[in-house]
Specification:
With about 350 residues, the protein is of the alpha/beta class. It has helices spanning about 15-25, 40-50, 65-75, 90-95, 95-115, 150-170, 205-210, 240-255, 275-285, 310-315, 325-345, and strands at about 5-10, 30-35, 55-60, 80-85, 120-130, 175-180, 185, 220, 235, 235-240, 265-270, 275, 295, 305. It has a domain at about 5-190 and about 235-270 and about 310-325: NAD(P)-binding Rossmann-like Domain (Rossmann fold). The mean pLDDT is about 95. Belongs to the NAD(P)-dependent epimerase/dehydratase family.
């Protein structure tokens, strides 16, 4: 993969930035497209600090079809894309469905239209375990039925996968992999990059770290009446660096011609579920911080439990999550302290 130029869309976001680092550490040249709608240009500095090289950056809105076309004319050598750029807040998607359909679907279509013009192309899609809904069986395998989506966000992931699959059916020169993530958490060990939610966090771990540092009064645990051991919902929490490395492995699979068909799907998880209360206990243990929390009513659309069967990714992709929950939470806490310090310095 060395000396290969790869496009990473949404490359300044949480998972995107960690993947850019993982690619650059393998000697891959990266071009990032990001419109900074849910990210910060400062992340570019963090990537440079870790890897010693600055990826090329293009501030483009992928909903602009002509801008996408012009990009590929400028970089004709690019035929490999890792596609993260998408809106991803479930609640917001319920309130603004058209925004989500336009942003998440049209951008995907415009990228694929450019790639299908090429002699060969590789496409890695950032999908989600939300496509499974409340699965009938646990752990969840890739063969589990895709359920009717609980939100427009979830629906854009389902539709996105279908669009890629249909495109690959009629384009044998295009090879694609959809990676269905479970719950990415943590930050790079350098604390140069991490999760930077704008406004109130939608995910558990940034809410935990913001509460522990005093930014939030207390953490709300949504529901303690689930049919689980401690009554709280169970999820598969996976370190973001493990997820980033999976993208590199998936791209290598396509470039080396190791794929079994030109469209494949893999789950990315640890294979283990942790309840919300277990996550809180792990955070307190690994950081020494006490966390104030209260039990709140369940949120609409939250499933009881979801964790991955990782056998296919482990055996076929040759990838396995290697970092622990404690390690991920500790890295998220170190990152939160760095963010807080920067915010204080900016205020002064």
């Amino acid at each position: 993969m060395k000396n290969k130029k790869v496009l990473v869309t949404g490359g300044l976001g949480f998972i995107g930035s960690h993947t850019v680092v993982a690619l650059q550490q393998q000697g891959v040249e990266v071009v990032i497209i990001d419109n900074l709608s849910n990210s910060s240009i400062d992340v570019l500095g963090g990537i440079t600090e870790i890897t010693g090289q600055t990826p090329e950056f293009e501030n483009i809105d992928l909903r602009d079809k002509s801008a996408v076309k012009i990009f590929f004319e400028k970089y004709p050598e690019i035929d490999s894309v890792i596609h993260f750029a998408a809106s991803k807040a479930v609640g917001e998607s319920v309130e603004k469905p058209l925004l989500y359909y336009e942003n998440n679907i049209s951008s995907l279509i415009y990228l694929l239209q450019e790639l299908q013009k090429k002699e060969h192309s590789h496409f890695i899609f950032s999908s989600s375990c939300t496509v499974y809904g409340q699965a009938d069986e646990l752990p969840i395998t890739e063969n589990a039925p895709v359920k009717k989506a609980e939100s427009p966000y979830g629906n854009t992931k389902q539709i996105g996968e279908e669009i890629i699959q249909d495109t690959c059916k009629v384009n044998s020169n295009m090879k694609a992999i959809s990676l269905r993530y479970f719950n990415p958490i943590g930050a790079h060990a350098s604390a140069e990059i991490g999760e930077l939610p704008l406004g109130t966090p939608q995910n558990l771990v940034p809410f935990i770290t913001q509460t522990a540092i005093g930014k939030r009064e207390k953490l709300s645990v949504f529901g303690n009446d689930y049919p689980t051991e401690d009554g709280t919902a169970i999820r598969d929490y996976i370190h973001v660096v493990d997820i980033a490395e999976a993208h590199v492995t998936a791209l290598q699979r396509l470039m080396n011609g190791k794929e079994k068909s030109n469209y494949e799907v893999f789950n990315l998880g640890t294979g283990k579920g942790n309840s919300v209360l277990e996550v809180i206990q792990s955070f307190e243990k690994s950081t020494g911080e006490k966390l104030p929390y209260e039990i709140s009513p369940r949120r609409h659309g939250d499933v009881t439990a979801a964790y991955a069967d990782t056998e296919k990714a482990n055996k076929e992709l040759g990838w396995k999550a290697s970092r622990s929950l404690d390690e991920a939470l500790k890295s998220a806490w170190v990152w939160q302290k760095v963010v807080q310090k920067k915010e204080r310095e900016e205020e002064q």
